[in-house]
Specification:
Blueprint: H1 21-28, E1 32-36, E2 39-42, H2 44-63, E3 67-68, E4 74-76, H3 77-82, H4 85-88, E5 93-96, E6 102-105, H5 110-118, E7 129-138, E8 153-163, H6 166-186, E9 193-199, E10 206-213, E11 219-224, E12 230-232, H7 233-238, E13 250-265, E14 275-277, E15 283-285, E16 287-294, H8 295-305, E17 307-308, E18 311-312, E19 323-327, H9 332-347, E20 352-355, H10 362-372, E21 376-380, H11 382-385, E22 389-394, E23 400-404, H12 405-412
Parallel strand pairs: 3-7, 9-12, 19-20, 19-21
Antiparallel strand pairs: 1-2, 4-6, 5-6, 7-8, 8-16, 9-10, 10-13, 11-12, 11-13, 13-16, 14-15, 17-18, 21-22, 22-23
Helix pairs in contact: 1-8, 2-6, 2-8
This protein binds one RNA strand of 74 nucleotides through strand 13 and helix 10.
RNA sequence: CGGGGUGUUGUGUAGCGGUAGCACGAACGCUUUGGGAGCGUUUAGCCCCAGUUCGAAUCUGGGCACCCCGACCA
């Protein structure tokens, strides 16, 4: 991508509105734009990160046999009446269509997937089944906050699993825990993301949250100093000592919830009469599980964890580009060489943002590059070309080294 | 939803009853080119509606929007 053509704009001044670091940096660097409270556009840079996250999640969900599909955001009122959530869920967006017809904007998709499964699942031979989708969900949060960490419209992955019995659900649930931990590792926040024992809320007595340690978080989790188990506030209130090792010493940390998985049991299969016949011809309710990750919030958490005072430091797997190629000066030779490197890198399948602008000073280009936070910075200038080289620097390191032009591609790969 | 705060060019701000100013950005020209360059010219603004006043960005009332704390959060 030529930076001169990129649909973005960076801002030097710190935003007056954005309090959260991720909000400020993502806005200033041109990744997102706020339309209204809790609603954001993902600009090309941000959209590339979103797609990368999406692909990591997709790969991992396919790894546990999830089948991707897409469910509608616009839902009929009847399904939400059936579960009682039309009236009980404060955050449900309700909208009116023609003829006073009412609809819900789906905040989650049990009300769609359960009646859908009823058309497909009849026998124990049909189970287990796993489907997932990645799409925008809508929640009328009383208070949106912290930029993309808590929004009213947001991209979310939800996987729903269907089982014949609790044991099968338990087994699959454990696989999902592993898949989730892997996703957060690949997204670059593995070391600070904890599987957190939590109370289950509506669905079941217990659930697992995935909490990323950061001061921008709105949750508090407790990490057992002896065995490392993380528990949330509700569990801590019920259990003064660690449920695993009985130690009473905990480290208290602020965290943001990047994922949550539940064993729903029959909570949604019963209202929609989702049943199957077992081997003996006996009808039984299908046992369900659900597993969510908010993509935007995950991106926000990544930025909260990976930045310095100059800007974002993207983990390689989700960076909008792998390399940021910058030409300095308006020297013809420099321009020709930078253009050639740009072509070569792209031919090798390396995602590169090429700062081809000639009306910007070196300092401005550097500052902007640091703000955007692409993992590798490649400088082409008269100075480097005199040595038949380019300068290569990693965003998270302070040392730059000269690299022969010929070796560049190999090094990046 | 309860409490608090803030609305001045695209962004960050000053002005706090009497000529709306500065910096950045953007545009043009010339000069510059290794850490947000220089000079010149130009561009663009008081959230909305009432009220008080000779006069309102400024005071009052109402509305709207955004931010923060709390509550809420499948």
């Amino acid at each position: 991508m030529l930076q001169s053509k990129l649909f973005y704009k960076t801002t030097k001044e710190k935003s007056a509105e954005a309090e959260a670091v991720s909000h400020d940096l993502l806005t200033r660097a041109g990744f997102v734009d706020q339309l209204m409270s809790g609603v954001y556009t993902f600009l090309p840079l941000g959209f590339r990160v979103l797609k990368n996250i999406e692909n990591i999640i997709r790969k991992n969900m396919e790894g546990v046999d999830g089948q991707e599909m897409l469910m509608p955001a616009l839902n009929p009122k009847e399904n939400w009446m059936k579960t009682g959530r039309w009236n009980s869920l404060d955050i449900l967006f309700k909208i009116n269509g023609s003829g006073d017809k009412e609809y819900a904007l789906a905040p989650t998709h049990e009300e769609v997937v359960a009646p859908l499964a009823k058309k497909i699942i009849f026998s124990y031979r049909d189970l287990p089944l796993y489907v997932f989708h990645i799409q925008n969900k809508f929640r009328d949060e009383l208070r949106a906050k912290s930029g993309i960490l808590r929004t009213r419209e947001f991209m979310m992955k939800d996987l729903y699993s269907f089982h014949t019995d609790q044991a099968d659900l338990d087994k699959y649930y454990d696989k999902l825990v592993k898949a989730y931990l892997n996703i957060f590792k690949e997204a670059g926040i593995g070391k600070v993301t904890y599987r957190t024992f939590a109370s289950g809320g509506t669905f079941s007595k217990y659930s697992d949250e995935f909490q990323t340690i950061t001061d921008a978080g709105e949750d508090i989790i407790y990490i057992c100093e002896k065995c490392g188990l993380a528990i949330n506030k509700e569990i801590k209130a019920e259990n003064p000592v660690c449920p695993k090792c009985s130690s009473d010493r905990f480290e208290e940390k602020k965290a943001v919830e990047v994922g949550n998985i539940f064993k729903m049991g029959t909570k949604y299969s019963l209202p929609f009469d989702l049943k199957f016949k077992d081997k003996d011809g006996v009808e039984k309710p299908v046992i369900m599980g659900c597993y969510g990750i908010g993509l935007g919030r995950l991106i926000g958490a990544v930025v909260e964890v990976n930045h310095d005072d100059r800007g974002i430091i993207w983990p390689k797997n989700i960076a909008p580009f792998l390399a940021h190629l910058i030409q300095l000066g308006d020297n013809k030779k420099v321009e020709a060489m930078a253009g050639k490197i740009y072509q070569d890198l792209q031919k090798q399948g390396i995602q590169v943002l090429y700062d081809d602008r000639q009306d910007k000073s070196a300092g401005e280009k550097f500052s902007e590059a640091d703000l955007i936070g692409i993992p590798y910075r490649i400088i082409v200038s008269e100075k480097t070309l005199a040595k038949n080289s380019v300068e290569l620097k990693e965003r998270n390191k302070n040392i730059a080294k000269l690299v022969k032009v010929k070796q560049l591609t190999k090094l990046l790969k």
